[in-house]
Amino acid sequence: MAHTDVFDDLEAEQQQLETVLAGLGPADWATPSAAAGWSVADVLLHLAQTEEAVTATVSEQGDPVRWHELGATVDEAMGALVEAERGDGPEIFARWRVARRESVAALRAADPARPVRWVATPLKPRTLATTRLAEHWAHAFDITVPLGIDYPDTARLRHVAWLGLSTLPYAFRLAGLPPVAVRAELTAPDGSTWHLGDPAAGNVITGPAGDFCRVGAQRLSPADTKLEATGPEAASALRLLRNYAVS
């Protein structure tokens, strides 16, 4: 595939989700999502809140969210924010539509070389945009799967796959293990092959890009995929794969 700009692809991913959301009815918003304890409206509220946080931290206007004050973990903090602001689905939809456009505009205008504060670590704008694309893509499934709505894979998954592979060293360190070189040979949605990582790496993960990204998003177990791990540490890499928001 031709490499495309991550800001353009973030906007396109959000637009695909917006098209789905625009067709939801009152009962759909209250439907339990695939994110435990959250309704469809709650999932979108979380996305709106985090997009607002992106704009605040990138533009340095207002007080960025102090995540550590809201819970012992990031997930607890996110849950506390949603709990505090639950509301009507159409109103949350309108809020997210504004927030997502302001967020992308702020990221586009930011100094590309200057990291900005984020939840766990400072990130450069392009990396932060990549994590936001991965976040929207993963949560789109939390919304669409329970509603029986198709949400097809696209070439934008290359950004998500890159994120998962590039943060594997961090995943290994979190597990108390020394990082190892890993490469991925992934079948893209259009049937082409994406070659990611060090070509000389002895640990190789092959298979559908969609499966690889879903494992990284914790939406699919490696055992339930068509992915194959070859090499002494490849299976461990697949087990530890996550789409972390780290540089």
Automatic annotation (TrEMBL):
Mycothiol-dependent maleylpyruvate isomerase metal-binding domain ranges (all copies): 10-143
SUPFAM superfamilies: DinB/YfiT-like putative metalloenzymes
Gene3D superfamilies per the UniProt record, alphabetical: dinb family like domain (1.20.120.450)
Pfam families: MDMPI_N (PF11716)
InterPro entries listed in its UniProt record: DinB/YfiT-like (IPR034660), Maleyloyr_isom (IPR017517), MDMPI_metal-binding (IPR024344)
Positions of transmembrane segments: none
Molecular function terms from GO: metal ion binding
Domain of life, per lineage: Bacteria
NCBIfam families: maleylpyruvate isomerase family mycothiol-dependent enzyme
Protein name (Swiss-Prot/TrEMBL): Uncharacterized protein (TIGR03084 family)
